[in-house]
Each structure stands twice: as C-alpha cells, then as structure tokens.
Design goal:
Helices cover about 5% and strands about 20% of the residues. By secondary structure, it is mainly β.
Length: about 230
C-alpha cells in the first residue's frame, strides 16, 4: 500500500523505508526529521518541497534513495544525509542544498536551467556541504553557487562553471576534463590539480595567495620579493 503522502502537507518525524514515490506529485510538501532510506522518487514531482534534517540513506551508506529524473524546481534540502543518493537527470532550477552530507551523490547530466528568450538562466545553490567523491559531470552551471563545500575527488568533467561562485571550496584531486571556469569566483578555494594550461581561467577571481599554485602548475618558480 502506497504511503499516504499528499502534496502541500507537512510531515514530521515519519520513517519510510523502501517506499515507492515514483512519479507521484508531492508538490510543496515539507518534511522535517523524516527517514527515506532506500526510497524511490524516480520521476516524481517535488517542486517547492522542503526537506529538513532528513535521512536518505542508512548508517552504512548501502541503501540510498533515488531521485533520478525527478522534478525538483525550487526544492530545498537542509541538514540532510544524502550520501551516494542518485540525482541524475533531474530538473532542478532553483534547487538548494545547505549543510548536507552528499559524499558520492550523483548529480550528473541534470538540468538547472530556465529558458528565457534566447538564453538560459541557471539557479543552483550548494552551501556548506560535503561533496567529496560526488559526480557533477556534464552540467551547465553558469552563474551557479557552490560555496564553502568539501569536494575532495569530485568529478567535474565537462561542467561549465562560467561566472559561478565557487569560493572557499576544497577542490583537491578533482577530475576536470573539459571543465570551464571562465569568470568564476575562486577566492578562498584550495586546489591541487587545476592546470591553467588545460582550463580556461580568463577573468577568474582569486586571492593573491592563490597565484603561487597556478604559477607552479605551469612550471614557474615563485620566490618572495628580495
């Protein structure tokens, strides 16, 4: 029997396990302190939903929820466990993640755009999250915000972060084939394998202290002024 969850309702401290929410319309629901271990949200309509202090995996990270192809426009996740959760091919204009555990989460091949005339607006906000080992590959993220995040060994292949706010992130050992950072704000971020010979860094914003790494990446020896 399907869970009695209706759009626009507020749920607190409920625990669903392996529940099938696929293709259901749960627009504008609010979930606080709820459990969704191994739940299926594939192709569900979750526009405007708010998830606060919710769990989408078990303690061993072996039963993740699946949001593949879900409609998540203007939805938000705050203080949630989203470890290795699937978000592939979602529609997510206006989606927000804050203070979430997202290690190994897969957000690849998703769509965070809103077509306006002959151009696309992008709105995605990820703040103070752990994105280590996460997959963001093949995403158009122009002017998005991914800030104050841990992104160790994250996959950023073929992402376009032009003009994005990428400040104060740990970007160590990331894969970055085809990555575009033109005009991005990288101030306060640390990185060890972003090669300016391979990646377009024109007009990026950096702190002076970050220039040493970039110079060393192209083989220049940086020494203090005499």
């Amino acid at each position: 029997m399907a869970a009695d969850v209706k759009q626009g309702h507020h749920y607190r401290d409920q625990d669903w396990r392996a529940e099938d929410f696929a293709r259901r319309d749960l627009t504008d629901c609010v979930f606080e302190g709820c459990g969704f271990v191994a739940c299926n949200f594939r192709a569900a309509t979750l526009r405007g939903c708010r998830f606060q202090h919710c769990r989408f995996n078990n303690d061993n990270s072996t039963e993740p929820a699946d949001f593949s192809q879900a409609q998540l426009q203007d939805a938000s996740f705050s203080h949630c466990n989203l470890t290795v959760v699937e978000f592939t091919r979602i529609k997510g204009y206006g989606l927000t993640f804050e203070h979430c555990q997202m290690q190994g989460a897969d957000l690849s091949k998703s769509d965070f755009r809103l077509p306006v005339g002959n151009s696309d607006l992008v709105e995605l906000t990820v703040n103070h999250c752990n994105l280590s080992y996460a997959n963001l590959a093949n995403n158009y993220l122009v002017n998005a915000t991914v800030s104050h995040c841990r992104m160790l060994e994250a996959c950023l292949d073929y992402c376009d972060f032009s003009g994005a706010s990428l400040d104060h992130n740990e970007l160590h050992n990331c894969t970055a084939a085809g990555l575009t950072l033109r005009g991005a704000d990288l101030r306060g971020s640390s990185f060890n394998n972003i090669n300016p010979a391979d990646i377009d860094l024109k007009d990026v914003k950096l702190y002076f202290s970050q220039l040493t790494y970039l110079a060393e990446a192209i083989g220049a020896a940086v020494e203090p002024d005499p």
